[in-house]
Amino acid sequence: MSNQLRLKVTVVRGRSAGSAFRLPKGMIGAGSAKGLLLFPDDPYLAPLHATFLVKDGELAVRDEASPSGTFVRIKKAERLAPGSLFAAGDHLLRFGGPLEPISPNSPTAYGAPASPQLFAVEEIVVGGRPGRACARPGPVISVGRNGTDLSFPGDKHLAARHCELHVDPGGATLRDLGTADGTYVRLPPGVEYPLVPGDSVRIGMQLLRIEQG
Q: What is the pLDDT of residue 2?
């Protein structure tokens, strides 16, 4: 990226949709109360939620240990460890990983026949509580608006078949299925994630796009 390249953040979705913020050199905070990118009416933002870093013509974003996290749109298949959070449409989801197998030597409650290995994906609702969930043997777990393993028919930002998790004993590989609204993964706090024009970042209710200009 050229040192002369000018960058800006445009709010694509949220109460400030259409607003644009030019990014000067240095560290640019984003949150409800601190920094250049302020969204005081967003209840899901920390006072200082994330920081954009512009240095030597390069741009990165860093989550500042915010409770609701910073998410980036995936451009290729992304590896998920058990417990990882990702977002599709208006839904926050957690990949739970493989469920504990039932010991053949212990008594157990009656139920449907058990698969040799099940993998879990669950919705996280406001307050961090679990919502809808599914457990499937794999190798693929699908998420979308309808006709998928985990479906959310009322979500207008979800494609009919939005994303897939290709599961294995060590985790999962998350793939977006060419959707208009994309699939997002949560960044670990404190890690600087490189960005280029065209990338999208979600913080709280705000969907931000990196652009030249």
A: 44
Fold match, 7-69+187-212 / 74-102+114-184? yes
Beta strands at 183-186 and 37-38: parallel, antiparallel or unpaired: unpaired
Question: Which residue type sits at 111?
Answer: G
Q: What is the DSSP letter of 114?
A: P
Joined together, the tokens standing for residue 212 give 């030249």
Q: Which pLDDT tens digit goes with each residue over 24-78?
A: 999 999 999 999 999 999 999 999 999 999 988 899 999 999 999 999 999 999 9
Instruction: Indicate whether 126 pLDDT > 70.
Output: yes
| CATH class entry, domain 7-69+187-212 | mainly beta
Nearest to 121 by CA among 162, 164, 63, 153: 164
CA terminus-to-terminus distance, the chain: 14
Confidence of residue 213 (pLDDT cuts 50, 70, 90): confident
Answer whether CATH 3.30.980 is correct for domain 74-102+114-184: no
Lookup: tokens for 107: 């008594």
Q: Where are the domains of the chain?
A: 7-69+187-212, 74-102+114-184
